Amino acid sequence: MPKVVVTGLGLVTAIGSNVEESWGAMLNAQDGTTEITSFDTSRYKVHRACELKGLNSNNNRGTKNRHTVYDCLSAATKEALQDSGILDYRGLERNKIGISVGTLAGELSAFEHRLRDHPDSKASGFSMDVVLSYPPMTLSTQLAEDFQIEGPNVILINACSSGNHAMCWAFDMLQDQKVSAMIVGGSDVVPQTEFTHFHNLKALAPEKCQPFDKNRQGLVVGAGAGVLILETLEHAKKRGANIYAEIKGYGLSSDGFHMTAPHPKGEGAIRAMEIALDNSELSYKDINYISAHGTGTPLNDKMETLALKAVFKERVQDTPCSSVKSMIGHTMGAASAIESVVCCLSIRTGRIPPTINYETKDPECDLDCVPNEARSKEVKFALNNSFAFGGNNASIVFGRV
Amino acid sequence: MKRRIAITGIGIISPLGFGHEEFWRNLTRGVSGIAPITSLDVSDYPCKLAAEVRGLNPSDYLGDKGLKYLTKGTKFLASATKLALEDAGLTQNDHNLEHAGIVIGSALGNYPQTTDYTYDILKYGPEKLLPMDSYDVALNSSINFVSVFLKLTGPSRTVSSGFTSSTDAIGDAFSLIQKNKADLLITGGVEQISLDSYLIFLMQKLLAGSQDSTPEISVPFDRRRNGFILSEGSYVFTLEDMESARRRGARVYAEITGHGLTYMGAKKFNTEQKIDRVRTAMEQALAQAGQSKDSLGLICANGNSSRLTDLVEAKAINALLGDRAKEVPVSSIKSQSGECYGASGAMQTASCLLAMDKSTIPPIMGYEVPDPECNLNLVLQEKRSQDIRVAMVSSLDYSGNCTCLILEKRDM
Fold it and tell me: Where are chain A's structural domains?
């Protein structure tokens, strides 16, 4: 089976509109949480989210201050493609580059804006721009169009583990040699619909996201995108590409337990991590950094700690495990794609981003969550966890090349 | 050695009936599922026909508990899944299902109910809505429901790639089992007719009769074709590692041996380039199966009565087969079933498996005017008896992928 490597990275987050800014802000422990401006929150108990600040929106889907999922995705894709230099490769076959993108809601936010302006359009008809952005697949076909990519093209919809699912799908396509490179990512903004869904489930924190803290109150919804360029090692070497990391393997599982609550003992999470390690032919002892799912909800963090203890046994306190969601919010379908970028950067730079807003130890979450300050540490292997609503789990192992 | 993948169960909720027996009986008798739309008010719009699922009583399959919180699509998918498991000889608490997963394709998923929920938020205010109001309103929540309902612990995902969604999902399930990521996967597709989906296709002028005042017909490869007629339903299969299927004495409908996919949607592609992409996907699928065009005994075509995609597909088949185009029968069931968009590939796969199983090819109904540009060995008006060992399912999106599967029947 061919090896699969990462050769380009792109990020859009609430704390930066590219990799350099976002990563710098993460290492500086910056909090991206602000008052929500894209819709009126006066009828809610929570008014904060990690919305985007600096992104220039210049395609016809978005209007001012209304970033679309596609805006984020295309900005991160542009950066990742440039970073990889793949489009400059003379031997490039555009029909051998595929696209897989994860999203939770697609362009739901754009639809909401339309509905606020024209409430009757739900029943009596849509404008053409809504029609053309309604099917989630238009995200990836538009990307193919704009960047002239001609390989197979899919959207993976798996709530908050969508990004990792897109990575796994791409990994399989590359291992099967159906393509030689893949643009992989996740993208979401903050739709009022999803905000309401989380709000009414009482899953939202009123002020800030505090993963693994005793007083954590829930998640903060975030907007953003993460994109990675994956290639077979052979393809990357042939064109002399700069390699960030290798994808060693992945594990998928379901809780089969509840539509919104995680399995209390983390059985699904344990299975995803163990399969990922097994698939990578690694032991838990080899992992130097864990990018936690760490949403900051009371249930998730407790469950994830139990699962990590089951998998990492005596090493659990010695393996740093942080959640960038404390800084950029829970970007849903984009989260695990962004965290994949974080894993690659930690391998590349030997720096581990912190879990911020950490104030009070929780005996039920007694992990080394890299509290409040970034840390320097050599990272040979990193594990990226994502455990979505509906019990949809995907863990990926990245390794240094 | 690579694992071999068997299809051991078929579950169908369709406009042509529930369960594969009723579906097949109607299909081979020339019964049509297409009729005036009743679930939507389309009096203001030109297209009046659709193939709707009628008379489904989900509690027959799912019990009575909690049904009111489920969307139409979830009811379709969960019911079809129950039928597939039963057909595969698996009970709900079967130990073989313990590590099973679910991979389903859907172009729109529960998007219509998600936007209904959005509408309610804006109209009534968020404080008026209860947590259960959004129980099943995520794009992928149908799959989550089935995974929770059956307590599945294996991989679960929703693939959304337009009209090839379910074909891509089946190809994905095939690849996951081959790579030891699961031993048993539930796979297939689901779509539901809603005003949203109707308007999306109407406004893009993809529906039959939406471009001009020509009659609304669904006759694949006929020169009069002018668009597709919308359909809905769910088509679900159990895919298993061949060894474990044999060990438990399961019936094997066929083996999946090849999966090819290419992208044909680029706006700059001319018809010739699209044809080339479709042919490439077909060749990839055959090559992975270790087969050639010479062994193909049936093509279950995408043929959905669209002007361009039917032409592209017909020419690609000719390019692939050369002289054999005269011999290899081509079937499309969409004259009776309509176009089930994201679930179409799974629908075609169902008809393909049943055709292989019964050694009978279902016909295209209502075909009158041959199109010299779509010169194929079409099975018309009457079902045809034929033994089929190797068959291909081809699936085309009007602006995305082309995905093909190879199915093989082996003597056990």
Answer: 4-238, 249-399
